[in-house]
Amino acid sequence: MTGARIDADVPVPAHVAIIMDGNGRWAAARGLERKEGHRAGASNIIKICRACQERGIATLSLFAFSTENWSRPKTEIDALFEIASDYFSGQFTDFPGMGIRLNVIGSRKDLPVALRAMIAKAEKANPRAYSLTLNMAVNYGGKWDIMQSARKLAEKCIAGGMMPSDIDEAALEEGLSTSGQPPVDLLIRTSGEQRISNFLIWQCAYSELYFTAKHWPDFDETELDAALSEYARRTRKFGGLA
Ligand code: IPE
Ligand code: IPE
Ligand code: MG
After folding, report:
1. What pTM was computed for the model?
2. Per-domain residue ranges for the chain?
3. Per DSSP, which regions of 55-176 are E strands?
4. Which letter does DSSP use for residue 183 in this model?
5. Which pLDDT score, from 0 to 100, does residue 133 have?
6. DSSP secondary-structure letter at 202?
7. 17 near 204, Cβ under 8 Å?
8. Which parts of the chain sit beneath pLDDT 70?
9. In the β-sheet with 59-66, what is the strand arrangement from edge to edge?
10. Residue 15: phi, psi to the nearest 5?
């Protein structure tokens, strides 16, 4: 447990989600191509995973590619998928040994076949014992997630296994890509923008929001601790009285 700076009596979020924004601006500020920013961003992931483990955070969700990111130039999308492939076949191979369980969330059908195969291989290597579940959001959208859960319920109803009146929040939640996990306690977005950009919209219904001007490749343990300290100072009311 090196580097942890959170006291035992301070509330630690069970589930942290991060919108890893600002790779392009990080690169531009250094006169580099945008893809170099994405590479630097990808190599920052392992450090933040380890920092979360050290701080007792059980679930981490990272936004890597949104359903809206298809509107970027093809050259950038190709570079992003190339970096993702290098990532899953390279650095990621250390993750099972670190006690990290991978759960890739998002629609896979439009991803390049080779990347899909690498994701499947990485998930197969998941360890039996782990201290961190990592939801990696690739071609993910919060609206897509709710839609695909709703579709599964509709299919169940048509098959006769369920009545529409049986559909409740728990049933819809069970079909989400984060099924069985706690909701997001703390949503962090780097690089100054203050919006959710269609990330885990259902799961973030009651999250605390934290925004930092730091670009994702510069987001480090000190930044994470600043977010966790701010979280610990917040009063969560869930509609009740403090
Ligand atoms: C986040 O960085 C990574 C992805 C969305 C894939 P950006 O590429 O959005 O970086 P900026 O916002 O242009 O700086
Ligand atoms: C959100 O960042 C998506 C990811 C970090 C993967 P964007 O840069 O795509 O979001 P907008 O366009 O600023 O809303
Ligand atoms: Mg951006």
Report:
1. 0.96
2. 15-141+183-232
3. 59-66, 100-105, 132-140
4. P
5. 98
6. T
7. yes
8. 1-8
9. 100-105, 132-140, 59-66, 15-19, 186-189, 208-211
10. -135, 120
- The response to whether residue 152 sits with its C-beta less than 6 Å from ligand 1 reads no
- Residues 5-54: tens digit of each pLDDT: 556 678 999 999 999 999 999 999 999 999 999 999 999 999 999 999 99
**Cα 76-79-82 angle, rounded to 5 deg:** 155
Find the residues whose C-beta lies inside 6 A of ligand 2.
Answer: 19-21, 63-66, 69, 193, 195, 197
Residue nearest to atom 7 of ligand 2 (CA): 21
Which amino acids are annotated catalytic? 21, 69
Q: Which atom of ligand 1 is nearest to the CA of 20?
A: 1
The dihedrals phi and psi of 59, each to the nearest 5 degrees, come to -135, 130
**Percentage of residues of the chain with pLDDT beyond 90:** 95
Architecture, CATH, for domain 15-141+183-232: 3-Layer(aba) Sandwich (3.40)
Ligand minimally distant from the alpha carbon of residue 37: 1
Ligand nearest the Cα atom of residue 68: 2
